[in-house]
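Propose amino acids for all 1137 sites.
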């Protein structure tokens, strides 16, 4: 009996018990012995050593043509641990089993420790708390979503809470140290900001409750404040190794904006109402997508889902120990996880709108749900105990057993509810199974390319290029998730978009170029990007991902004389580019100088047509020259416009109505201070991204007030009002400049233009009326401020167009250039399909040079799709070229009408690479205005993409008059691309509601002129022979030796442009090349203009990497000093004993 008791005690020891639970679950999950993966994390346990080699550098060259993702530095310890397992012989599946085993074990053990700390009974209740934490609906969603950061947060959060509570109780430094150690070991999760927020929110809630609990003990409160601040400061210092590079490195990735965060929050909050949150249910997965079938919609399972809530309520009956810590954390967690759902939804939305960092948890249920279910697991345990010991006062048989029987039934119901936890159905869905195997072909091709790249270095182009960063692979078990080329193949792979605007435009151009017979452009792309090999992957599911048909691409690759098939196995085919490619570092003989001093501004606008900048880059690529010894090099400098402004944006859109603000009291009224106070309160509670537009309205109010005071001839009050307006104007323009491109859209710009133009007119009328010279000067300054601001955001030209025809035309694009030196440049019109726009060699067209009309003759070389208009002389400064070319004729043909409120038109001779302008007049007679949709062909055999554009006309202009709408439709705009297979021709559909009456007239769609203007140096500059050698030290550093006899030299690094790349001369006297000479080159790369001659030795270095080393030194030093402090204390304690 004693032996059995001992065995029982051992098995029920939490340290052993959760080992068994973890082992059992892992065995149940891996019955097929197949790797789990997909979604947002891909396959982290597949070749972790290779991934470690990538992420130890802040520059990811593996994601061609390179990018910086500073957040991944935090995952280095995790991948280092997995690489050790790999070296010990564990395969990808074995590593995944070990990781899952550790996570489950730590989940159960951590909560059991916390439960023992919170509830005084301990014993088997600890085990129950750990089990409830492992097996609950929310944890089921955590595993199902398959985000490793959430796995690790779920395992580490109980320890953070446990050690912090112990710190507040005992005040000992050892608990700070243990808190920091857990943080280091779990640092992988900090590659996302959300776990950082979740951990410190939990700490903050417990701290605030401790202050409330000890509100009469000032000394204890002071001590707790000191301990918490010390913990936070030491956490910052010991995590400085990833925090410093994160906050000091420019992240090129366009992720989200404040407005986007709030929009996402409001959308997802409908799925996180309190009745779902407290049950841990994700209705989208469980009820709408039905990833586990219909069972969760059944009344029985709906009833079972409330069992945990019942036990939480029962925990309130008898609150012992430190249960209030958990109750407070639970209630706060519910408030956070519900997002903007009621109650207090508007308060939550306001908080998110004004605190940008909270954008990381814009899906609050997923990111902060653990703040609900960590305390809930302990509260449920206490509720189970309270029901178990409940004494029934009625005189009924077996009354002592009834509560226990009910408890067992309810607990069993909770276990039944999470049935997917006991098998691999937990992961994935029927559509996308959770497991997969990487075919052996990939390892074979990877080994082949590894060998080849040592002989012929270069980048690898993976075709077809994935849409966004996701891909679907048709393997034995379908893989669906993040695109895997950087995992599967060696070197740098160009295979997907990087969410860097200028790089993604280039990648989109590459994708379009390789599904056509365009060998000249293909060759230029391969040479420019340094691509030596192409891997055609026929495993990619193009129908699911709206990418090009690999079979169509294969046809063009097979017929290219510049490519040779060097390897074919399974569904992979490897081509070698036979011509010379550009090395990683080269001396440029022909270069596009696009923009200096940091990143170029994205000039694209939603409803206006820009030239295809990437296409013009491909046209004007000159031959680069590296290591030439015996000949001079002729090169041309090519300038692209820094902004393209449609002149129609200067006119008020017909359907934009700007309401005038209501003015009741003027500044001379005794009630005016109350008006200002009211405005300040309203402004304070306005969401951040709306504050600037709110401020714009207030400037309107100030100038209307000033006008009324002027009319009333109250000069003193008028002067004060002008000064007040000037202050408001400064604040308004400052705030508008900070808006993101998403917030400063076309309609917003139109409103800004209209309002500020009106204010300029008012201010101009004030000049003649004001008698005070000082006020006159102030007014003139304000007019200049408005003009300068409008020019800065592209809503006002620098030069007045002196031509009456301009006033009658809305088809003029103004191309702005900044010229550094006095020069003569050739004026070139690019990307012109001349037959559609009436352009031909020898034809005279009108252009506007700095506002003045001038007639120039088109000259076209044979087989070129661009025209030269001769040379122009340019002085340093801003220059503007205006060009007016009418769009092509109407290509719209009516197909069907009045079928369920749908009028349908088709486009003749449709070209998916062109942009079309849809325009019409409409009049709303009754109900809502029309809705427009654009549908395109979806033929799988041709591989044509299938965009779907949807435009709902705004409701705010219902004045029942005729209105004009113009809309740009471009298949190159990935934001509006959606897959649809219901049509076989490109069509425009105009929908009206059944209750609506809408008249439409003058409907037309025209192919838009898609050309652009560039300037080229009119005479080639002679480049004397240059010899250059470089050595790649690491992905973040190159050593270069150059013998330069020229005054100017252009060095190119074929990695994505980033202002962290620097040219640093080895000679201290020469120093670093200035950032103003750092250029975005050939649409994506780094280029430096170096005006030093002779034998030069320098490094091209990604300097943010040094911040990682600096942060690491600081963190290690702090850990070392803390260790010494603790050892010293331990040593003194032993001496005293």
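Proposal:
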């Amino acid at each position: 009996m004693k032996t059995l008791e001992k065995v029982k005690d051992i098995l029920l020891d939490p340290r052993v018990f959760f080992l068994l639970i973890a082992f059992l679950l892992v065995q149940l999950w891996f019955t097929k012995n197949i790797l789990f993966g997909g979604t947002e994390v891909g396959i982290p346990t597949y070749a972790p050593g290779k991934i470690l080699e990538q992420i130890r550098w802040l520059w990811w060259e593996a994601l061609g043509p390179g990018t910086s993702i500073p957040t991944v530095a935090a995952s280095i310890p995790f991948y280092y641990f997995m690489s050790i397992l790999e070296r010990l012989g564990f395969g990808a599946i074995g590593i995944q089993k070990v990781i899952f085993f550790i996570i489950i074990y730590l989940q159960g053990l951590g909560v059991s420790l916390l439960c023992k700390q919170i509830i005084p009974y301990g014993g088997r209740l600890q085990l129950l708390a750990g089990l409830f934490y492992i097996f609950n609906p929310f944890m089921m969603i955590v595993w199902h979503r398959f985000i490793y950061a959430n796995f690790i947060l779920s395992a580490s959060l109980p320890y953070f809470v446990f050690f912090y509570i112990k710190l507040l109780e005992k005040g000992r430094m050892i608990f700070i140290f243990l808190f920091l150690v857990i943080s280091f070991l779990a640092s992988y999760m900090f590659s996302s900001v959300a776990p950082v927020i979740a951990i410190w929110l939990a700490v903050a809630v417990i701290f605030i409750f401790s202050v409330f609990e000890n509100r009469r003990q000032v000394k204890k409160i002071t001590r707790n404040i000191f301990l918490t601040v010390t913990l936070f400061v030491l956490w910052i210092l010991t995590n400085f190794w990833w925090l410093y590079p994160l906050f000091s490195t420019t992240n090129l990735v366009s992720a989200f904006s404040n407005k986007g965060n709030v929009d996402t929050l409001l959308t997802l909050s409908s799925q996180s109402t309190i009745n779902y949150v407290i049950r841990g249910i994700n209705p989208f997965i469980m009820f709408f997508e039905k990833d586990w079938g219909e069972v969760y919609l059944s009344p029985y399972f709906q009833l079972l889902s409330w069992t945990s809530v019942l036990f939480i309520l029962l925990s309130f009956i008898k609150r012992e120990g430190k249960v209030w810590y958990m109750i407070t954390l639970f209630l706060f967690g519910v408030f956070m996880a519900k997002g903007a759902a009621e109650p207090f939804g508007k308060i939550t939305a306001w908080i998110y709108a004004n605190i940008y960092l909270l954008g990381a948890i814009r899906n609050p249920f997923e990111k902060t749900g653990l703040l609900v279910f960590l305390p809930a697991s302990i509260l449920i345990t206490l509720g189970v105990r309270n029901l178990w010991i409940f004494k029934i006062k009625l005189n009924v048989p077996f009354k002592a057993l009834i509560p226990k029987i009910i408890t067992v039934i309810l607990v069993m119901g909770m276990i039944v509810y999470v049935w997917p936890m006991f098998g691999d159905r937990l992961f994935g869905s029927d559509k996308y199974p959770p497991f997969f195997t990487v075919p052996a072909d990939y390892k074979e091709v990877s080994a082949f390319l590894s060998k080849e790249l040592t002989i012929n270095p270069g980048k690898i182009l993976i075709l077809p290029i994935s849409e966004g960063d996701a891909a679907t692979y048709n393997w034995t078990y379908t893989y669906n998730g993040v695109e895997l080329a950087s995992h599967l193949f060696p070197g740098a792979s160009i295979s997907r978009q990087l969410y860097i605007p200028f790089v993604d435009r280039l990648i989109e151009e590459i994708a379009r170029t390789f599904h056509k017979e365009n060998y000249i452009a293909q060759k230029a792309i391969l040479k420019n990007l340094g691509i030596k090999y192409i891997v055609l992957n026929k495993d990619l599911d193009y129908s699911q991902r709206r990418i090009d048909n690999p079979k169509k691409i294969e046809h063009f690759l097979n017929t290219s004389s510049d490519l040779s098939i060097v390897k074919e196995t399974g569904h992979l085919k490897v081509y070698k580019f036979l011509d010379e490619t550009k090395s990683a570092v080269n001396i440029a003989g022909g270069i596009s100088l696009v923009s200096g001093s940091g990143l170029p501004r994205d000039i694209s606008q939603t409803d206006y047509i820009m030239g295809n900048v990437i296409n013009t880059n491909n046209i004007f690529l000159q031959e680069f020259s590296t290591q030439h010894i015996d000949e001079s090099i002729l090169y041309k400098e090519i300038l692209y416009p820094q902004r393209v402004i449609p002149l129609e944006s200067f006119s008020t859109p017909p359907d934009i109505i700007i309401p005038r603000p209501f003015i009741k009291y003027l500044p001379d009224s005794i009630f005016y201070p109350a008006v200002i106070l009211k405005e300040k309160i309203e402004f304070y509670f306005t969401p951040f991204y709306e504050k600037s537009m709110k401020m714009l309205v207030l400037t309107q109010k100030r100038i209307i007030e000033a006008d009324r005071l002027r009319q009333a001839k109250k000069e003193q009050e008028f002067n004060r009002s002008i000064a007040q307006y000037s202050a408001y104007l400064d604040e308004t323009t400052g705030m508008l400049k900070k808006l993101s491109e998403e917030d400063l859209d076309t309609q917003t710009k139109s409103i800004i233009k209209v309002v500020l133009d009106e204010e300029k007119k008012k201010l101009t009328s004030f000049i003649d009326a004001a008698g005070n010279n000082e006020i006159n000067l102030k007014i003139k300054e304000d007019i200049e401020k408005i003009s300068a601001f409008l020019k800065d955001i592209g809503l006002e030209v620098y030069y007045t167009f002196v031509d009456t025809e301009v006033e009658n035309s809305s088809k003029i694009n103004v191309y702005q250039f900044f010229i550094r030196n006095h020069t003569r440049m050739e004026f070139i019109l690019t990307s012109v399909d001349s037959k559609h726009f009436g352009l031909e060699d020898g034809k005279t067209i009108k252009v506007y040079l700095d506002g003045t009309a001038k007639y120039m003759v088109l000259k076209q070389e044979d087989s070129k799709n661009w025209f030269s208009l001769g040379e122009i002389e340019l002085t340093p400064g801003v220059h503007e070229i205006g060009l007016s070319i009418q769009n092509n004729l109407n290509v719209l043909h009516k197909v069907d009408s009045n079928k369920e409120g749908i009028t349908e038109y088709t486009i003749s001779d449709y070209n998916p690479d062109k942009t079309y302008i849809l325009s019409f007049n409409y009049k709303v007679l009754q109900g809502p205005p029309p809705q427009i949709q654009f549908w395109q062909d979806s033929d799988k055999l041709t591989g044509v993409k299938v965009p779907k554009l949807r435009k709902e006309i705004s409701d705010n202009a219902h004045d029942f008059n005729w209105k004009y709408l113009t809309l740009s439709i471009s298949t190159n705009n990935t934001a509006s691309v959606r897959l649809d297979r219901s049509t076989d021709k490109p069509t425009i559909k105009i929908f009206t509601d059944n209750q609506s009456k809408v008249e439409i007239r003058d409907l037309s769609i025209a192919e838009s002129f898609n050309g652009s203007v560039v300037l080229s140096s009119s005479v080639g500059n002679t480049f004397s022979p240059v010899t250059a050698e470089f050595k790649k030290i690491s992905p973040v550093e190159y050593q270069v030796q150059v013998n330069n006899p020229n005054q100017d030299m252009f060095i190119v690094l074929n990695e994505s442009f980033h202002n962290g790349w620097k040219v640093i001369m080895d000679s201290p006297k020469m120093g670093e090349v200035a950032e103003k000479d750092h250029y975005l080159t050939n649409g994506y790369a780094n280029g430096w203009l170096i005006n030093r001659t002779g034998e030069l030795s320098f490094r091209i270095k990604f300097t943010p990497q040094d911040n990682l080393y600096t942060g690491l030194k600081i963190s290690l030093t702090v850990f070392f000093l803390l260790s010494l402090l603790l050892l010293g204390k331990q040593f003194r304690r032993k001496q005293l004993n």
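The radius of gyration is 34 Å. The chain has a mean pLDDT of 78.
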